[in-house]
Amino acid sequence: MTKPLRIAASALMLSGLLGTGAQALAAPAPAAAPQAEQAAHPTTDFLGPWSSLGLEPVTITAGKASGGTTPLNMKLPAPLEKLTGLVGRTFVLRQVDGTTLHSVNDDPDITFTLTSQNSADLKMKGKKPGQVMNLPLSRAD
């Protein structure tokens, strides 16, 4: 060992870093704990008008509580009703996890997912091939 290297090693041993803490310095850091699943949002976080690209808003309102859960009603704006052929329908959604609502019946299959406090994704899928709509939404209030 060269003299400067020996001096540096001696200094580290005296300070305790090389002798006892070398393993701690050389050991890899423990893997980060997996992120916890997003916290459950209360039903009220889903309520209200949600708009996209200047369209009239999609509206989500609370329905009558039954069996301890409150279903939510979703109404499409007139332009989207015409586009989808679902004129005059109100869709009943239930909360399936902390950030997701899903349609009670599957015609069409609807999923409304909060991506943040002020943004969401609306996905609708019909029975026929190609009947799919994915619409990013943001709060309209």
Automatic annotation (TrEMBL):
Write the record's keywords in alphabetical order, separated by commas.
Answer: Signal
Signal peptide (from-to): 1-26
What organism does the UniProt record list as the source?
Answer: Gluconacetobacter entanii
Identification of the protein by name: Uncharacterized protein
Region annotated Disordered, chain positions: 122-141
